């Protein structure tokens, strides 16, 4: 469940006071990930590459307490669960969003990913989980090579962390993927964001080897 928490009782008390009225409290870090393992696993096992990325994002985020808090309006919310959101191209020619509950089981997460994204693709309507989940947004421009992206800031209405990436690239004996990670400064500082990206790389390296 989601509940309002007292900022002064958390490690983000100072950040909450510093950034709660900031006109632009979002920060973006850029990192190039080695996704060789995911590409090989996708081809060998038939898993969708984007699904694997979303699962690794969920696994990395689940290890950090910062991802279970989020500023919402004037409050700091505490969550028990996380979800990963993805942008889906609909059959009608538009796009919509799809929240996928995170599961430690890759098989379960893949099943939910396929079912829910197909539902959104066919119906055209967004699939949003209840407000009990802290949602991590993602967007993939898989047909295009990009070096980075800075996302919009919706004036406090959407403070969720967000990752954007494009097409992965061959580089010598490995495959790399530049990723942009945007986050709210109340939720975490640069050090925690960098740690998350390091954890994400670790999860990618370990994917399929468990």
Describe the protein's architecture and organization.
The protein is α+β, with helices and mostly antiparallel strands. 31% of the residues lie in helices and 30% in strands. The chain is built from five helices and ten strands, in the order βαβααββββαββββα. The strands form two sheets. Strands 2, 5, 6, 7, 8, 9 and 10 form a seven-stranded mixed beta sheet that branches. It is globular, with a radius of gyration of 17 Å.
Number of helices: 5
Unreliable sequence segments: none
Query: How much helix, percentage-wise, in residues?
Result: 25-40%
Q: Please provide the count of β strands.
A: 10
The end-to-end distance, rounded to whole angstroms, is 30 Å
Task: Quote the average pLDDT.
Answer: 92
What is the radius of gyration computed over CA atoms, rounded to a whole number of angstroms?
17 Å
Task: Determine the strand fraction and express it as a percent band.
Answer: 25-35%
Most strands sheet: 7 strands, mixed
- What is the N-to-C succession of helices and strands? EHEHHEEEEHEEEEH
Q: Structural class per helix/strand content?
A: alpha+beta
The geometry reads as globular
């Amino acid at each position: 469940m989601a509940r309002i928490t007292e900022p002064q009782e958390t490690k983000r008390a100072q950040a909450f006071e510093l950034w709660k009225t900031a006109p632009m409290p979002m920060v973006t870090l850029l990192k190039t990930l080695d996704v060789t393992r995911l590409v090989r696993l996708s081809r060998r096992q038939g898993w969708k590459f984007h699904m694997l990325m979303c699962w690794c994002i969920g696994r990395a985020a689940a290890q950090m307490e910062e991802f279970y808090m989020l500023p919402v309006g004037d409050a700091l919310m505490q969550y028990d669960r996380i979800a990963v959101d993805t942008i889906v191209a609909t059959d009608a020619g538009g796009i919509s969003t799809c929240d996928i509950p995170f599961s430690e089981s890759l098989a379960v997460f893949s099943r939910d990913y396929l079912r829910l994204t197909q539902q959104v693709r066919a119906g055209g309507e967004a699939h949003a989980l209840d407000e009990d989940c802290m949602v991590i947004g993602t967007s993939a421009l898989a047909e295009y090579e990009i070096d980075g992206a800075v996302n919009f800031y919706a004036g406090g209405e959407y403070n969720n962390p967000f990752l954007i990436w494009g097409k992965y690239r061959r580089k010598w004996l490995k495959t790399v993927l530049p990723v942009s990670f945007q986050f709210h400064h109340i939720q975490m500082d640069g050090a925690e964001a960098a740690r998350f990206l390091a954890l994400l790389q670790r999860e990618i390296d370990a994917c399929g080897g468990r």
